């Protein structure tokens, strides 16, 4: 059994306050009724137990939206390259209130970041971060995490989970070894150690959460059907409203495409690495002018197939975690859940 503490609202607040006072801490912060993960210095600034999924995923704390890669200076003798003045590496830090799906998104990203090239900045950020998840009490209208290929109930994507028990108690449970060590060192306010009864209550909470889903799919069937549907004409109608704004990819916890661009004023410049998306019309444009994905349906087909077929084939995990962020934020109401189900049907 992992380490479990039973507490109440006041105890949980003290736990959070202790963490915020000790560590560089990030948590969901509300702005205009939307939540995003920000650095916080006081508990009053944030809501780690936010019932609303954050609008932006936790991804930018590991893979920044834009980052300076290097500086360069040109003169008559050539180009001199230097480090940027930014420190891209995080120190030890804690993130509170991460939803389970968002944390799972990081496990999915790990596969690509440790593949043929190890991104050392990403790796260091992952190693230096402790993730505390607050389990959702009920599913949002666009959530479908429980339909996919991972075990949401027993997920080890976060180090510590907080559960609002149906019995009125709050449970703080370590999930990983990192989480257990963290709890041993940072839970001085918690005196009631959980028991087998606490484990049962956490299970009961999960069953209640699981039964609240509006969206359900047969993942295995969808995955198998899509493998044979590359030429399906259905990709056209399901994507025809897309305005190629890329919002879905930018907020997605697992999308990881980026572009490299140089910005130069006179002889001095900076090279940037910034988010990009396969929904961009120019994403696959080649230097010679050929674009293998000139039509919107081809770009959406790539998005759907990469999420539900290709990544799974290569890394054994699905590239969609069912968070629903994309459907909530899409200006024309396209939902990847609807797209893959409609094409598969
Ligand atoms: S958010 Fe919607 S409109 Fe924008 S690129 Fe994605 S699917 Fe298209
Ligand atoms: S594709 Fe949409 S539902 Fe799937 S992980 Fe990305 S944002 Fe979440």
What does this structure look like?
This protein has 345 residues and is an alpha/beta fold. It has one domain (4-344). The chain contains 11 helices and 11 strands. Helix 6 (219-227) packs across helix 11 (336-344). The longest helix has 20 residues, at 296-315. The model has no long low-confidence stretch (mean pLDDT 92). Bound molecules: iron/sulfur cluster (SF4) (2 copies). One iron/sulfur cluster (SF4) binds at residues 252-254, 307, 320-326, 336.
Whole-angstrom Rg: 22 Å
Number of domains: 1
Reading side by side through the largest sheet, how are the strands ordered? 1-9-8-7-6-2-3
Summarize model confidence as the mean pLDDT: 92
Question: Layout of helices and strands, plus pairs?
Answer:
Blueprint: E1 4-7, H1 9-22, E2 24-31, E3 34-40, E4 66-75, E5 78-82, E6 93-98, H2 100-113, H3 120-127, E7 129-134, E8 160-164, E9 170-174, H4 177-185, H5 196-210, H6 219-227, H7 235-239, H8 247-251, E10 258-265, E11 268-275, H9 296-315, H10 325-329, H11 336-344
Parallel strand pairs: 2-6, 6-7, 7-8
Antiparallel strand pairs: 1-9, 2-3, 4-5, 4-11, 8-9, 10-11
Helix pairs in contact: 6-11
Bound molecules: iron/sulfur cluster (2 copies).
One iron/sulfur cluster binds near residues 252, 253, 320, 321 and 324.
Short description:
The chain has 345 residues and is α/β, with parallel strands linked by helices. It contains 11 helices and 11 strands.
Task: Give keywords.
seven-stranded mixed sheet, 11 strands, alpha/beta, binds iron/sulfur cluster, 11 helices, four-stranded antiparallel sheet, globular, single chain, 345 residues
């Amino acid at each position: 059994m992992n380490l479990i503490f039973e507490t109440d609202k006041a105890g949980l607040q003290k736990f959070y306050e202790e963490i915020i006072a000790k560590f560089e801490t990030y948590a969901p912060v509300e702005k205009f009724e939307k939540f995003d993960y920000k650095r916080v210095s006081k508990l009053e600034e944030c809501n780690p137990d936010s019932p609303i999924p954050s609008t932006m995923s936790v991804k930018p704390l590991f893979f920044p939206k834009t980052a300076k890669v290097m500086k360069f200076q040109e003169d008559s003798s050539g180009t001199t390259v230097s480090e940027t003045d930014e420190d891209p590496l995080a120190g030890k830090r804690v993130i509170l209130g991460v939803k389970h799906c968002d944390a799972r998104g990081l496990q999915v990203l790990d596969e690509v970041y440790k593949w043929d090239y190890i991104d050392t900045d990403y790796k260091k950020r992952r190693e230096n971060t402790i993730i505390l998840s607050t389990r959702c009490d009920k599913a949002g209208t666009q959530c479908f995490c429980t339909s996919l290929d991972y075990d949401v109930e027993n997920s080890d994507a976060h180090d510590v989970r907080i559960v609002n028990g149906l019995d009125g108690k709050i449970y703080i449970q370590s999930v990983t070894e990192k989480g257990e060590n963290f709890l041993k060192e940072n839970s001085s306010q918690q005196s009631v150690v959980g028991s087998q009864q606490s484990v049962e209550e956490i299970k009961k909470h999960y069953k209640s959460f699981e039964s609240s889903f509006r969206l359900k799919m047969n993942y295995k069937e969808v995955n198998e059907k899509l493998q044979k549907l590359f030429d399906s004409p259905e990709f056209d109608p399901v994507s025809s409203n897309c305005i190629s704004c890329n919002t879905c990819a930018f907020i997605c916890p697992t999308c990881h495409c980026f572009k490299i661009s140089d910005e130069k004023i006179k002889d001095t410049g900076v090279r940037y690495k910034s988010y990009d998306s396969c929904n961009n019309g120019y994403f696959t444009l080649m230097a010679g002018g050929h674009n293998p994905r000139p039509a919107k349906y081809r770009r959406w087909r790539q998005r759907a197939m990469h999420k539900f077929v290709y990544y799974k084939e290569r890394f054994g995990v699905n590239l969609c975690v069912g968070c629903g962020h994309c459907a909530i934020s899409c200006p024309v109401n396209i939902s990847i859940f609807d797209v893959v189900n409609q094409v598969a049907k």
